[in-house]
Amino acid sequence: DQQVKQNSPSLSVQEGRISILNCDYTNSMFDYFLWYKKYPAEGPTFLISISSIKDKNEDGRFTVFLNKSAKHLSLHIVPSQPGDSAVYFCAASRTGANSKLTFGKGITLSVRP
Amino acid sequence: DVKVTQSSRYLVKRTGEKVFLECVQDMDHENMFWYRQDPGLGLRLIYFSYDVKMKEKGDIPEGYSVSREKKERFSLILESASTNQTSMYLCASRTTDREVGGYTFGSGTRLTVV
Prior knowledge:
The complex is a heterodimer of chains A (113) and B (114). By secondary structure, chain A is mainly β. Chain A has strands spanning 4-5, 10-14, 19-25, 32-38, 45-51, 56-59, 62-67, 72-77, 86-93, 102-103, 107-112. Chain B has one domain (4-113): Sandwich (Immunoglobulin-like), CATH 2.60.40.10. Helix content of chain B is 0%, strand content 53%. In chain B, a hairpin with a 6-residue loop joins strand 5 (42-49) and strand 6 (56-57). The radius of gyration of chain B is 13 Å and the shape is globular. The relative contact order of chain B is 0.33. The chains are: A mainly beta (113), B mainly beta (114).
């Protein structure tokens, strides 16, 4: 049973516009959520995270929103740039020294020049 | 910056071969992980290790084993490689000094089993 779901496999947006990437989770024990970005032939790199005690976290062009009641989070990229074209993975975790991440299937973002 | 190094970027092996994938991290991290990435399936956890000599099964351990004899090295072993183990394999490490997150991934090993 998939605990972290990214239901859209791909998204295409115009450069300069907003990209909104969605993620849903089913495990109510998750209390920390992360987004990773992955280019082909490279490992995933950390992008932004949010704790369940917050509903928004912002870092430059990237903002993550968390709706705990809906078990839904989203990543907003504004403005989108061609270099943002990559696979984005949503991940969730429980707080703890030996915590492990559960990842979604990923979404491929293409930003058109 | 912490570095996670996977010994091979690309590997081609024959069905039935025993395959070793090596991962080394240089920041004294306690936790280490092996994931595989497949199109449409995302990142799935194979095995992880909380510390030296410790190992735990992840979500898809069948056909794999691991070894962690030294803190910096975590090896993934395919006992008898099969074509359905063709995949991108990603190693990661993290420190327990942080309550959450803190993963650093290697660049991956693209394994093809023919």
